[in-house]
Amino acid sequence: MPFEFKATRRVEFSETDLAGIVHFSNFFKYMETVEHAFWRSLGGSVVMPQFDPPLGLPRVHASCDFRKPLRFEDVVELTLRVTEKRPKVLSYEIRFRRIEPGPAEEVAVGKLTVVCVAKRPDGTMQAVPFPAELADQIEVAPA
Questions:
Q1: For a pLDDT cut of 70, what percent of the chain falls above it?
Q2: 17 is a catalytic site residue
């Protein structure tokens, strides 16, 4: 059962600031990218219109601690680990590791917490348990 997922990406020029360093806001985009890939690997998504009512996974917490900069054309490995699983809530830790140019080193650690919600016909949302077919595929990573 998955508790960890890895993805890699190269830093694009448009993601950097005038100093040539990745702008902090892009780390949150990278976290979302690896989270979406994790859900796709399970056959799901963060948007689930196939359920009645439709389900989604809004963030209720997002943070990132930056240790070293990333620069244009660096290759970063993103490792998502499930750190908490409750019936309606998942939390992840995302570790950012620059792998090119070497030597490989950790550059940041992020955290995301999402809640499974149902979107009612009137547009309001209500927290609901994750569907069993998805929840049964996910476990908490070992410490």
A1: 99
A2: yes
- The active-site residue, picked from 17, 52, 65, 74, is 17
Tens digit of pLDDT for each residue in 88-121? Answer: 999 999 999 999 998 999 999 999 999 999 999 8
Q: Which of 23, 2, 14, 16 has its CA nearest to residue 108?
A: 23
Cβ-proximal residues to 57 (8 Å cutoff; 6+ apart), any chain = 39, 46, 47, 90, 114, 115, 116, 117
Q: Has domain 4-134 been given CATH number 1.10.405.10?
A: no
**Looking at residue 43, what is its pLDDT?**
87
Using a cut of 0.85, tell me whether the model's pTM lies above it. Answer: yes
Query: Which residues, in sequence order, are CB contacts of 77 under 8 Å at separation 6+?
Result: 6, 7, 8, 96, 97, 98, 99, 104
Taking the domains of the chain in order of start, what are their residue ranges? 4-134
H or E stretch covering 41: helix 25-41
